From TrEMBL:
ZnF C3H1-type: positions: 1-26
Cited InterPro entries: Znf_CCCH, Znf_CCCH_sf
Gene3D superfamilies: Zinc finger, CCCH-type
Annotated PROSITE patterns: ZF_C3H1
Native organism: Lentinus brumalis
Keywords attached to this entry: Metal-binding, Zinc, Zinc-finger
UniProt xrefs under SMART domains: ZnF_C3H1
Residue ranges constituting the C3H1-type domain according to the UniProt record: 1-26
Pfam family, one: zf-CCCH
Record-given protein name: C3H1-type domain-containing protein
GO molecular function terms attached to this record: zinc ion binding
Length: 223
């Protein structure tokens, strides 16, 4: 069983006994298992900094919780679960998680659009993930984004927090990071053929190859 890098480094894990990884204090974590360190936040262009309407609307359903929009919405969601004492797989937590998932998809569509044939949407993605130079052709722009391994939750945070998401070298590295921090995007809410579908990856069963085959969308067989 893979070692939980959070528990190994900090002695704690947000998932507790429900964690899928082994809790061994100060255990050595292999390069393949260890999530890459996230670099310091990098500023992005202010013109792409929207108001997180759908995320804010989700948290507004829980006025007893003091939501901090200056922090990652995923971290705030887990903090809210702790605040209300919602155990993993409880009805309250599951209902909130489902509502959050819908808000995540709505927020992506609101921020970046849904049309996979829109060059401006792809260029906006390139700007946020700091692809330089930004291609001026749809095919090249799409290819640059699709071959980048990005956590979509971090991508959603980027415009609001003024940061750029980490580009991981492999799908395996992205998978370890995503699963260890619980930043899994809801594939079941994504419409086929949409812009968002191209960004989905094989998180539960990552492919070992570095790139993505030409013409293949990232969303198939993805969690």
């Amino acid at each position: 069983m893979p070692v939980c890098y959070q528990f190994a480094e900090k002695g704690t894990c947000r998932f507790g006994d429900s964690c899928r990884f082994e809790h061994i204090p100060h255990a050595p974590v292999s390069k393949e298992q260890k999530a890459p360190k996230v670099p310091k936040a990098r500023k992005v262009v202010d013109q792409y900094r929207p108001v997180p309407d759908h995320i804010v609307a989700f948290f507004s359903r829980y006025p007893e919780f003091d939501y901090d929009s200056d922090l990652s919405f995923i971290d705030e969601f887990y903090r809210m679960c702790d605040h209300f004492g919602w155990r993993r797989y409880s009805n309250e937590r599951d209902q909130a998680r489902d509502a959050m998932r819908r808000a995540m998809v709505q927020q992506f569509n609101h921020t970046f659009g849904t049309n996979a044939e829109d060059l401006a949407s792809w260029q906006k993605l390139c700007e946020i993930i700091q692809i330089d130079p930004i291609p001026d052709k749809l095919k090249q722009c799409r290819r640059a984004v699709v071959t980048s391994h990005i956590n979509i939750c971090d991508l959603l945070d980027a415009p609001f927090l003024g940061t750029a998401p980490t580009r991981f070298p492999t799908e395996v590295a992205l998978s370890v990071y995503t699963r260890s921090l619980g930043k899994i995007f809801p594939r079941d809410e994504v419409e086929a053929g949409s812009l968002l579908e191209y960004l989905l990856r094989h998180i539960l069963n990552p492919r070992p190859e570095r790139g993505i085959q030409r013409g293949v969308k990232g969303g198939r067989k993805t969690s």
